Description:
The protein is mainly α. The protein has 2 domains: about 1-50, no CATH class; about 55-125, Up-down Bundle (AhpD-like), CATH 1.20.1290. It has 7 helices and no strands. The protein has helices at about 1-25, 30-45, 55-70, 70-85, 90-100, 100-105, 105-120. Helix 3 (about 55-70) packs across helix 5. The longest helix is centred in the first third of the chain and has 26 residues, at about 1-25. The chain is globular and about 50 Å long. The chain starts with a helix and ends in an 11-residue tail after the last helix. The mean pLDDT is about 95. One of its GO terms (molecular function) is peroxiredoxin activity. This is Carboxymuconolactone decarboxylase-like domain-containing protein. InterPro entries: 4CMD/NDH-1_regulator (IPR052512), AhpD-like (IPR029032), CMD-like (IPR003779). Pfam families: CMD (PF02627).
Amino acid sequence: MEDRYKKGxxxxxxxxxxAINGLFDELEDIAPDLGRFIVExxxxxxxxxxxxxxxxxxxxxxxxxxxxxxxxxxxxxxxxAALNVGNTPEEIVEVIMQMSAYAGFPAAINGISAAKEVFxxxxxxxxxxxxx
Length: 132
């Protein structure tokens, strides 16, 4: 079990080390095991599988969380993680815009709002997207 936790923490340090403490602080007094489950399952068992690199996994996660439309905190964390593993702001915006066709415009607008929040904090605005 400790190996799974260690393996998951290594991935978290690569993708979003700034979010680790916040996650544990948020859960410590009510559900500390949930933090451990998050480290041991998605980050240890899923993120370390062969077949996709971390850049692609984070972009897929941004798409899924955008489509859900109900997970702004997790979406902003994963937008930050996507940047940390090499995705560009333009790639993140494009995958969120793609979700408008599958999850609807409200979900895409909320996703863009979350991206803008992260980009602003990282001084990555304004973006200069070119239309087709």
